[in-house]
Amino acid sequence: MTEATAKSAFNSVISAVTAVFTALIFGFVLLWVCGYDAVKAYTTMFNGAFGSANRFAETIVKTIPLTVMALGTAIAFKSKIWNIGGNGQFIVGGALSLYVALNFKLPALIMFPLSIFMAFAGGALWGGLAGYLKAKYNANEVITTLMLNYIASFLLAWLVRGPMMDPAGFGFPQTPLIDKSLQLSSLLAGTRLHSGFIIAVIIVILCWILSRSIFGFRMELIGESHEVAAYSGINVKKTTLMTMLISGGLAGLAGWNEVFGLHHRLLDDVAGNYGSMAIVIALLGGLHPLGIFVSGLLFSALLVGGGTMQRMSGIPLSLVDIIQGTVIIFVISRAALTLKSK
To answer: Is residue 59 part of a domain?
Structure first.
């Protein structure tokens, strides 16, 4: 790692920590003004996220899909391609990998990598569709990825209530469980922490390698200026399409991780609002893989600990959401100030 790279990673981590810490200070003052015991509330939140092996495991479990999705989002954002379709890519990747696992009777040694490939392919297909429309017709990717989110959500609702619905599920909108041989192994007995965390760490490393590669340089150059990139001999349309394929593929892998590691089946609304949170985490981490990993952990701690704080301290959920929303405000403010300074 060069000195410049190490400095960039350090700055990304410090920025993420600073934004979260500043938001927590604001939240502390807000709780105190509203008449709540802020010290007790924050102690409960910390214990809810890190207070025991089980609670820390839950934080890591939440970190896994958010970090992988945020890495995919960051790849697109570096090229100034505003991919907000993470949820749709997550759903299609998870659904396609699960379909293969449920309908093809192959040895686990073959099925496991095949399911990973299908998850990446499904997410890449969904992201690549928006990338093709952008490259070919200059279609606004914000609109296309958003619309594809809706299509994927309705597709999921149809699958879990129709052709993939569990016949022994008492009418619940869910698919059958995958075979136990395909379920990701547990990393910590008595918790939900699974080996998908190791895969997420590997993806972080691979994304860092990609960012230092020639293709990574091309993506960033396209983000700076299409004209300069084209003048330098870069095929802008091809690179745009490839960027969206990789970005969507990573979101698909997040879906695979969630399905094969946590739920072991498809559920209605399995993606939740992961896509929106992934955007925040990507920006919070400065679009750097290491910064994204740290910001994913911090944001997950806020989500898990905030839920515990609301249940145990009687803090209204609205105040918990305000604290989490403050993080977003500081992220946006930091981005605006950075652009202004340039």
So the answer is: no
Say how far apart CA 312 and CA 32 lie, in whole Å: 17
What's CA 152's distance to the chain center, in Å? 17
Measured in degrees and rounded to the nearest 5, phi and psi for residue 287 equal 60, 15
Helix axes 53-78 and 38-50, enclosed angle (nearest 10): 90
Spell out the alpha helix ranges (H) of 79-224. Answer: 86-103, 108-137, 141-161, 196-211, 214-224
Q: Is residue 107 part of a domain?
A: yes
Contact status, residue 232 vs residue 70, Cβ threshold 8 Å: no
Q: In the structure encoding, which two tokens stand for residue 336, read together? A: 């605006």
Residues 311 and 190 occupy one common structural domain: no
C-alpha count within 13 angstroms, C-beta hemisphere, residue 183: 15
Residue 298 has pLDDT above 90, yes or no: no
Residue 149 above 50 pLDDT?
yes
